[in-house]
Specification:
Blueprint: H1 25-39, H2 58-69, H3 75-78, H4 83-93, H5 101-110, H6 117-144, H7 152-173, H8 197-212, H9 231-245, H10 252-261, H11 271-278, H12 285-313, H13 319-344
Length: 375
Amino acid sequence: MPRTPAPDEPEDDLDDLPDTHPPQPVYYAEQALLGALLLEPHRLTDIAGIEPDSFSNYAHGALFAAIRALPAPDPNQHTKDTTWLNAVLTAAREHARGLTASYLHTLVQVCPWPKHASAYARMIETEHARRTLRAHAERLALTATDVTLLHPVPTTLAEADALARAVDDIAARFPSHSGSLPRTPAPPSATNSDNDEESVDEERLLLATATAHPADVEQMRWLTADDFTHPLHAGLWQCLTALARRRAPVDPVTVLWEAQQRGLLASGAEPAELLDLLGAPAGSAEYWGERILQRSVLATAHHVALRIEAFTDDPATTPYQLILGSRRALADLSAARARWHHATSPAPTTTRTRTTAPPRASPPRTTAPPTRISR
């Protein structure tokens, strides 16, 4: 939680560079709630759903913790002296030494109506939910782009699960009702200029290897054209999958002809260049496909995180819109997750039931795939 000093905090306890940003509306809601509780401590029984770390201002959180920790004073006695207020200040200053008696007086003065304490608390809870969701989205975005991870997809998906749990927790505290999706514009997706050499090379190798071994294409239904970073490569993959599913002959020339029928050559692609691209297989099609899918899953997770961050940055987005928009964004990642599990899960094995009579001996069989000769 970012630290925001109280107005009366001494200069030696402030950051070296003062915060020039004006306070947000929630800052005044926090002041109003604390003023209500200082005036009428019994209002604390009406407060639910917030904790000291729910406050955007650290000193406000320390003050709320002190109010909650101390027994409420006798109402009549509280109107006659400041004994309880002094005790609250002493307890709060253990964690926020910049708090002063004059600031407590300010809080009392700026509270419009102590009886509105529960409404102020709800405002604080709403902004805390927004900050919590943003923090989870930021972690997801950082994880999805962390090139040092040994297992990037499982680690990223674990962060996505944590974000989803945060959304569920917020939904439990803000009961759903009919509402619209957030009106916040979605951040732009990655463009072709974002492609790096490695992703382009891997896509070219997949297309060439799948053309040489079209039987593998049918086993790779988990890979879609949307997983490719280059539009031409995405179109060629559609050509390959269409030919394979029609049981049509597959080689560089037939793929080139299919590409012409689909209008891919209109983009300026030269036939000779496509033939060269499709005629240089290497390695395994499934290996290159998994590499492409991994990059697509991580890119999807990153974009989902940016979308949710955008929702939280828009102060006009209600809690219900945050919940609805976040769940809609996470659904896109769930679809990519399902394809990743399909691609990386081991193939199911069948077990043979042993009968009373042993099976007749047969020539030994190897489980290794036949050696493929590049064309």
